[in-house]
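Summary for the steering committee. One of the milestones for this cycle was to obtain a three-dimensional model of the protein with adenosine monophosphate bound, which we needed before selecting residues for the alanine scan. The sequence and ligand used are listed below.
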Amino acid sequence: MQCVHTKSELRQALAVQDQQPRVLVPTMGALHAGHASLMRQGRAIAGDKGLLVATIFLNPVQFDNAGDLQAYPTTPESDLALCEECGVDIVFMPKPDEMYASDRSMSLEENYLSTVLCGAKRPGHFAGVCLVVHKLFNLVQPTDAVFGKKDYQQLAILRRMVRDMDIPVTIHGAEIVREDDGLALSSRNVRLTAAHRSAAPMIQQSLQLAKSQFEQGMDAEAICAEVKFGLELIVGVQVDYVSIVDATDLHDLEADSDLALLAVAAYFGEVRLIDNIEMKRA
Ligand code: AMP
């Protein structure tokens, strides 16, 4: 495995290892088993003959909250060990000034899927995600890229970006990886207090209950209200949103929607956790 820090080192490494398919797994570091599952999926797509590139870049442009960026964990040594274990060929680990000129004046906005759920709550977040992923696509020129369903809206927006911008990359979605107690793995989980860490599996428990209620025909708004009410019984928890939407366009559920998505974001103290579940009416 080769670890490179600059664009020119990356270009050189890719010129030497130019086998196809070339699969990209972008991350912000503080890697855990969720990232590992994306990298393993990437390795499977690349096969023995292809190339797997992972990027570790804490993208400042997608943070709408300076405190969140400041508090974001960084674990470069164990990150590299995990990349190696997952069969990554090249890790690109740039510094912010390598990625962004100080007078950067380009942005990249998606204007439909980004207007709801987290996009409505975190101004500029998805524009920052689109910008960095577009840049990584230009730098790495992958045939394929893997993103997690944990960030369901991000995955939908990036699929839209490649469609609308004619970017020749196949996007693959990976299932959410959870702790044994059901909490979705997240780099932010280490910031939870002990009390909030032990209460946080309630998120998935309430999503599972909601899914069975939805599948039995219960009204979507009533389900969301119940999830919100239940989570806010935990001391120090503030729900940001609970929504049931069409899983494809992330807007209102229609009678003919094939798949629904229940998405939740909640502050456990300072830490914003997100989770979701796909659901189908019986
Ligand atoms: P991040 O480092 O948080 O930007 O995440 C990098 C990639 O890993 C994104 O595509 C995330 O959706 C994905 N990811 C993060 N946590 C999980 C998880 N628990 N299960 C599956 N994928 C995840």
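Key point for the committee: The CA atoms of residues 32 and 186 lie 8 Å apart.
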